[in-house]
Design a protein that fits this description.
alpha+beta, about 260 residues, 6-stranded mixed beta sheet
Length: about 260
């Protein structure tokens, strides 16, 4: 199912225009949670209208189910949207997976969708990764093979064929956009601890370069100081590209609003 979605994105003749139109809107509304939530809803409709797949947007706030969109090749997915959302709200992730499968069959995936500019990307806000490092690494650098392997396995705790994280990264200067699958496939050389002035972080090192930073999180930090982030282009380039192309400035947002003026 994951490969079906990736193939649809790769062969799409509508994706460039869709991203161009979205960037026209984003230029006016700015970055942040609002733009990300808007893209989730728009991407859901893009899948429904331009591919042979069906998608529903979860729109779940403060939920343990971190996945934004469910996609299937079963058309009954959409008609069962309310029931699926109720299943997710009422059950743990593992129980919800079983019940959804009973309802629409096994051929479905759940996506967490990220939208960021340039090489920035917040892979997850799950604090369990930080807790594991504090308990097992502490305030030190580590090249311990066992510790690194165990942490690498923790990063891959979700079934990568069922639960998928996808990032849209857009580059304003070059007008390039990429869709990448945020999957951890190459193990790291070391885990380095860094004590900052206010909040400490852990860096994941590969080929002598920092790829990811794991920030403090919880109540002592703002939204940009939580979870796992790409460190720089080394981080974003770690992840495989699903598809890459270009967008244009087309003033779509302004033209749509102007069309409503009598």
């Amino acid at each position: 199912m994951k490969n079906l979605l990736f193939n649809e994105l790769q062969k799409s003749t509508d994706l460039d225009l869709f991203i161009s139109n979205f960037m026209s809107v984003k230029e006016q509304v700015g970055n942040g949670v609002g733009a990300g939530k808007l893209f989730e809803r728009l991407f859901t409709q893009f899948i429904n209208k331009t591919t042979k797949l069906s998608a529903i947007h979860m729109n779940l706030m403060n939920s343990e189910f971190i996945w934004d969109i469910i996609i299937s090749d079963n058309k009954s997915l959409i008609t069962n949207k309310s029931e699926i959302i109720n299943i997710i709200k009422s059950n743990t992730e593992s129980d919800a997976e079983k019940l959804i499968t009973q309802l629409i069959g096994d051929n479905w995936i759940a996506i967490s969708l990220k939208t960021y500019k340039e090489d920035a990307c917040q892979i997850t806000t799950d604090y369990s990764y930080r807790t594991w490092l504090e308990n097992n690494i502490g305030e030190q650098n580590s090249q311990n093979t066992t510790s690194i392997t165990n942490f690498f396995n923790l990063l891959n705790k979700h079934d990568s064929n069922r639960y998928i994280i996808i990032a849209l990264n857009t580059y304003a200067k070059t007008k390039i956009y990429t869709f990448r699958e945020l999957i951890f496939s190459k193990i790291f050389d070391s885990i380095d601890y860094k004590k900052n002035k206010k909040l400490s972080q852990y860096n994941l090192i590969l080929n002598s370069k920092p790829c990811f930073k794991i920030l403090y999180g919880k109540n002592q930090a703002n939204a940009f100081q939580r979870g796992i982030w790409t460190y720089n282009e080394n981080g974003v380039n770690y992840f495989p590209i699903i598809t890459k192309s270009t967008f244009v400035d087309n003033d779509y947002f302004e033209r749509v609003i102007e069309a409503t003026i009598i």
